Amino acid sequence: MKLKLVILLVIILSLTQIVFSQSISFFNPNTIGAGARARGMGGAFIGVADDATAASWNPAGLVRLETAEASVVGLFESYTPETDVPDFDADPYKSSHFGLNFISVAIPLSLGERNLVAAVAYQKVTDAYSKYDGDNALQETTGGINAITPSIGIQLTNSISLGASVNILTGAENLSYEDKTGYYQSYDYTTDLSGTNFSIGGLFDFNQFRLGVVFKTPFGLKIEDSDRSWDLTFNIPQMLGFGASFAPTEQLTIAADYEMRKYSDAEYEANETGETMSADWLDVNQVRVGAEYLLMTGENVLPLRVGFATTPLPFEDDNGDQLVGSNITAGIGIIMGAINLDLGMEYNSYSYEFTGGGETYNYSDNYLRFIISGVFHFGQ
After folding, report:
1. Helix (H, G, I), strand (E, B) or coil at 110
2. DSSP per residue, 296-365
3. 99 beta partners
4. 3-class secondary structure, 125
5. Residue 304: phi, psi to the nearest 5?
6. Pairing between β-strand 359-378 and β-strand 219-225 as defined by DSSP bridges
7. What is the rounded distance in angstroms from the CA atom of residue 30 to the CA atom of residue 40?
8. Which is nearest to 327 in space by CA: 288, 283, 284?
């Protein structure tokens, strides 16, 4: 009986570590752009990128804007872990929250006969939110990484456009721990985050068929505690993404993206000594596909969207296989003259097995997200 209790305790402690490692990390290895339209299409938007959210996907797509545009995006996320480990209660780990995800303004200019569009955007690049509300303690993490992104897109020829963005990254991860037993001290702890990198994009428009490419430069994300007693840099490698879209009719668009992130080169650097240590991560290569159909309803247009994406993590499971999740998406919108309103939905799930005490158990992380967007056009 005692042996069974010890085995169960080891399994629960291991599972607790898995849950926290998935949910409180300040850095999401599958960072993507914003907007309910793009997210409803599975995030397959590098080769589409033709609205005010283009700066977060492919800045070259900004040149497709014919009038000044502003956008605002909110995101609701619900997190639910599940496991068949006996006597393990996953309910304290469940959480949900809503926040501002993206806001932008884009203004078309002119450069002779060529389009030139300037934009500035704010995006919540990664969200560090997590919550554990158990019988003995309440632990909540808030914050994440934000980006202020000035961008520009320029049309070189009728079919070729280029764009560039500067991503000024800033933010903090705030951890609050409240002890409910009275035996331990409650505390708050803040970690500051900062860095800068660049996005360079190209878009090749052949009428019904478009190709897009985006390169994001490597950068160092500085991580520093609030007391300034230590700091280190997480060196994040480059990202290269390709996208294609095909519009066989005026109503239907089909798109696909492929992104490569060489996280096997990621490393930590101690800023005081200059010593480095490998993060020991795996490369993350993501596939995204999606489609949009415009349903004509009198004076208004109702876009319908579906999509799918793989969401790999840079870690292995107990079998030595890379953890790869799936993201199923859908969306709907309404275009009413100068106003576009969109709603996107994502169901993102990671499922895998782990062993403990000679037994094999199942575990899954499940995320349900709703993305709400408004795009507003100004002028003619």
Report:
1. strand
2. EETTEEEEEEEEEEEEEEEEE-TTSPEEEEEEEEEEEEEEETTEEEEEEEEEEEEEEEEEETTEEEEEEE
3. 75
4. strand
5. -115, 135
6. unpaired
7. 16
8. 288
Distance between CA atoms of 95 and 133, rounded to whole angstroms?
9
Q: Do 153 and 54 touch, CB atoms closer than 8 A?
A: yes
**CA 7 vs CA 1, 11, 109, 164, 358: distances in Å:** 10, 6, 66, 54, 9
Q: Which amino acid is at 218?
A: P
Per the CB < 8 A criterion, the answer to whether 328 and 308 are in contact is yes
Pairing of strands 209-216, 239-246: antiparallel
Give the domain ranges of the chain.
2-378
Of all helices (H) and strands (E), which one includes residue 100? strand 95-111
pLDDT band at 289 (very low <50, low <70, confident <90, very high): very high
Q: Give CA–CA dist 266/236, Å, rounded.
A: 5
In 3D space, the residue among 15, 331, 57, 37 whose CA is nearest the CA of residue 203 turns out to be: 57
What type of residue sits at position 80? T
Q: What is the pTM of this model?
A: 0.88
Q: What is the biggest distance separating any 2 CA atoms in the chain, rounded to whole angstroms?
A: 82
CB 11 within 8 A of CB 315: no
- DSSP, collapsed to helix, strand or coil, labels residue 283 as coil
**Residue 126 one-letter amino acid:** T
Within 8 A by CB and 6+ apart from 67, the residues are 108, 377, 378, 379, 380
pLDDT of residue 324: 92
Q: Where are the beta strands (DSSP E) in 112-136?
A: 114-127, 130-133
Q: Which two tokens stand for residue 170?
A: 């800033």
pLDDT at 27: 60
Contact 367, 85 (CB under 8 A): no
Q: From residue 87, give the alpha-carbon distance in Å to each of 5, 9, 12, 166.
A: 11, 10, 9, 49
200 vs 29: CA distance, rounded Å: 19
Quickly state the pLDDT bin for 228 (edges 50, 70, 90): low
Query: Would you state the structure tokens that stand for residue 62, as one six-digit string?
Result: 């900004």
CATH superfamily, domain at 2-378: Outer membrane protein transport protein (OMPP1/FadL/TodX) (2.40.160.60)
* Cβ 170 vs Cβ 177: under 8 Å: no
